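Technical note accompanying the year-one report. For the benefit of new consortium partners, we illustrate the data format agreed upon in the data management plan: each record pairs a sequence with a C-alpha cell string. No post-processing was applied to the example shown here.
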Amino acid sequence: MRARQLITLLAAVTLVFMTFSLFRRPHTPRNHITVEVTFPPEQPIELLGPLQPIDTSLHPIDQLIKKSEDEFNRLLARQSQTLDAAVAEYKRRYRIPPPPNFDVWYAYAKRKNVQLIDEYDTIYHSLLPFWALEPNVIRSRVDESIGFEGNFLMAVTIREGQIVTMEAGEEWEQKAITGMMADFIQYLPDMNLAFNIHDEPRVILPHDILSRLVDVALSRSMPAAFATGEPRNNFSPRPSDLNDGKRIREVLTTRFNRFAHQHTWTHSRMSCSPDSPARSFNEQTNDNVGPYALGDLGFVYNHSAFNDICLSPSLKDNFGFFDRPNAFNLVQDLFPVFSQSKISSYQDILYPSPWYWAGKVDYEEKRDMEWQKKEQRLYWRGSTTGGFSRDGGWRRQHRQRIVRKINEPDNAKIMANKGTPESPNWQPLDVRRKDYEEIIDVKFSHVGQCDPGDCDAQKEFFHVVDRVDQQDAWGFKYLLDMDGNAFSGRFYAFLKSNSLIFKMNMFQEWHKDWVKPWLHYIPLSLRGDDWLEAVRYFAGEEEGKRDAPRLAAISQDWANKALRNEDLEVWFFRLLLEYVLRFRSCLTSFTDEPTDMDG
C-alpha cells in the first residue's frame, strides 16, 4: 500500500515539474549580463520624417531666417491704422462683432503705441470653446473654482470698476495683477475671475467633448448671438447670481483632482485626436516630425506644430511635466481658469504673466556689453526644475536631457558645404561633439525638486557649478532659454539684452502671435540633432556671423517696442473684454467718436 502511494506521489511530482518546465520562460544563459539603461533610448523617426529642403544651395538656417523676416515685415505692414479698419479685420477673422468698449480699447492701444493692433488670435482660440456654454454656467464654474480653498486659484471680484476682493496668491502677484488692470478696470463690467497660482496648467478636456464644444460654438452659439437685434455698445445689467463681490461663496466640493508627482501623459493627451500619434494604442509610437522639422538635423520650421504634443508621443519619456510635475491640480470640465502658460492640449485661458510685469527677472543694461566684447559661447545656468524626480525620473526630464546630451562626448551632425563657394551644396556631416566644446557652456548650478537619493544621483552625474548672478549672462553672445516647471521667466530679460537667444519651449504663452522664431529668437528642438549646428552656424559661418548680431539687435528692439508693461496691459484689457462676452450676455456696436482715453 505504501509503495503504491509512493509511486503515485512521485508521478504527481513529475507531472508538476514537467508542466512547469513546459510553460516557464526560457532559461537565461549563465553568461548573459543584464545592463541597466541609464537613459531611455531615442525613438526612431519613421512615421513621417522631417521635411527635406528643396534648395541645398542655402544653409537651412539662412533660409529660415529670410522666410521669418519676410513674413514678419508683411505682418507689420498690414496692421489696421483706423478703428473702422480694426473692426473690419476683427469681423473678417472671427465672424462676430468685437466686444463692447472695443473703441475704448483701440484708443488705449493707440495711445500706448502698440505695434500689433490685429494679432490676437490666441485670445480667440482660448475662448472659443466657452461660446458653447451658457453665461450662467460659466459664472457658476468660476464660483465653484474660487469657492473651494484647496483649488489653488486666486479669486478676484470686480464691481463698479474696481477690485473689491482678491484672495489667495502671493502678495507680489496680487499687486502685479492689480497694477496691470489699473488703467482700464473702470471700463470692465462686474465679473469674477479665477487665476491659476500654480506654474502648471489646470484644464483638460476629452477630445470628443472639446470637439463638440467647438462645433456648437462655431455652428450655433456664435452665429445666434449676433443674428437678431441691433447691437449696442454696452453691457447687460449685472446678473442676479452675481453678488456684491465682498465675499467669496464657500463651496464644499470640487471637481479639481490633485495628484502632484505622478505621471500625467495619459491625462494630457486626452484632447488629442484619436488618430494622432499621441493617442496610439502602442506604447512606442514614433513621433510625426514632418509638420515641424526641416532636414536631417530637424531644424524647427513650424513652431506651433512643434508645440503640438499630439504629434510627439516621445514627450512622455523626455519632458518633465509629463513624468512628474511638481504640482498638478486638474479639472476635466471646461472651467475658465486664467494661466500664465500652458501645454498645447490644455484649455486654460492664457494671460500676460504678472511675473514679467513685476520685473521679477531684471535686465540691467549697464552690465551688458557690446557684441564684439562678449564670449562666443552658448551659455546657460539653472536648476533641475521641470518636474519632481523620484525613482530615477530625472533621466526622463527635459532639462537634464538637454544638459546631458549637449555635453556628451559622442558624435553629432553639422551642415557642411560639399560644393564650392560659387555653387554651394549644404549636406549633413558627422563630427565629434568634443571638437566644438569651446562654444558650449551649459551647466546646472542647483539640484532640487527630487527625493534625496535622486538629488544625490544627479549631483554625482552632472558637473554642478556654483550659482551665479543672473546678470553674468550678458557676457556671452548666445544665451539658452528653456522651460522649467512651466514657462521660463528669464525670456524677456534675455530678449532685451545684446545677446542672441536660443530657446527650447513646449509651454505656450500669450505672446506666441507676437514673438517670432528665427527672427526674435532661434528655436531649438527637444530631440537635439540641431543644437550644435545652430550654434556653430552663427559662430563659424560668414553669413551666420553677420546675422547673429543683427538678429540680436532686432530682438532687442522688438522687446523694447512690443513686450513693455504697456503691451501686456493692452493685451490683458482686450482679453477681459472678450471674456465678458461669455461671462455676461451682451451685444456690441462701435462709434468713431473720440473717447476720454484718446489723451
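Partners are asked to follow this layout when depositing records. The longest strand covers residues 375-383.
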